[in-house]
Amino acid sequence: MNYILFDDGLIRTQLLPFTFTRPIAEIRVGILTISEKWKILLGSSVSILTENYLSEKYPLVQKKQNVLINSSIIPDEKLVDAIKKLKSNQALSFEDSIIAYRIGGDEMNKMGEENVEAMEEIEYRDGFAQIQNVWDIFLLNGAQIRLDYERITAGRNSQKCSKTNRVSSADHIFIEEDCHIENAYLNADQGPIYIGKNVEIMEGAMLRGPLSIGEGSVIKMGAKIYGDTTFGPHCKIGGEVSNSVIFGYSNKAHDGYLGNAVIGEWCNLGADTNASNLKNDYTNVKVWSYTADTFVPTEEIFCGLFMGDYSKSAINTMFNTGSVVGVCANIFGSGFPRPFTPSFMWGTLPYDVEKAIETAERVCARRQIEFSSVDAEILRNIYQMTHKNRSKK
User: Fold this and answer.
1) How many Cα atoms sit within 13 Å of 181 on the Cβ side?
2) Residue 252 in this model has a pLDDT that exceeds 90
3) What percent of the chain has pLDDT over 90?
4) What phi and psi, each to the nearest 5 degrees, are found at residue 141?
């Protein structure tokens, strides 16, 4: 069977700025991205149906029979079993939402909302996890680390941890090959710790699970990392981090606090950047919504920074509680930045898209990663889509 993960249009907008540069399925929560979770549980490759300007980087594969799955939904064994039982022109639903549907390739090319409604509907009665808002990413992260850890370490043996380290609950710590970990503290009493290949953890670092450290990442000396936290591949992390998700290729390499936060790829938080995650009056945090075009309540007391890809903050930057930063934004200046910074801003001024692309090329080259013409065209599209936000500054 051919499986396709499709973007729910409303949820995709609610997950901006992260879905400016990627489909929903490429959001990381837990150890793995959503698409990687589906691949493991389906036992099959998947492709993605997303916005036109992203489709060259994330191509769609169609076959004679296709099962389309709402990519904001995080899979589990029961849900996957129900999806695999779908017959042609059947849809699996939960309350008023479509989870998945099966359709032939010819019908898919002329698919519309009315076609899905005409399908035989099968109600799914068990619950499931779903990413619907940006804060769901860190709220679900601890539980997803635990689930991913069990799936990807089952039947495998961890590398041994050096005796120079102070370790608690060693049987809940999994270390991949070619890691360098000396004179650090690893505490898995409250949840597992997963350490990817070629990770370096420097002396004095204090790590508490549940925690995932992606391949090629570096944890700097004396770092204080609390649970429910994920660092994607090739991150450099220092200072204090709690219940946060950093997608990959991003740096928070120096002192400063980050909590209840989500950071995209290719970001850099300057030395002593601090992001508030709790208001002084302990009321619920509001964050900028691209859907509502205004600030909306999260119903959460703890809510920190949300930063889109390729954005950066200067040294000593202070972010307000629940700040949202778009793509390719550069934050600097005295005082607190506004709680919403649009994409392509240089301080308080618009940032030329071609200059932003040149910088992105240099940033990627430092990691021996190609910034392609496809990536450049994605940024040009985002620049056009976000013009109205910059015009309000």
Assistant:
1) 31
2) yes
3) 92
4) -65, -40
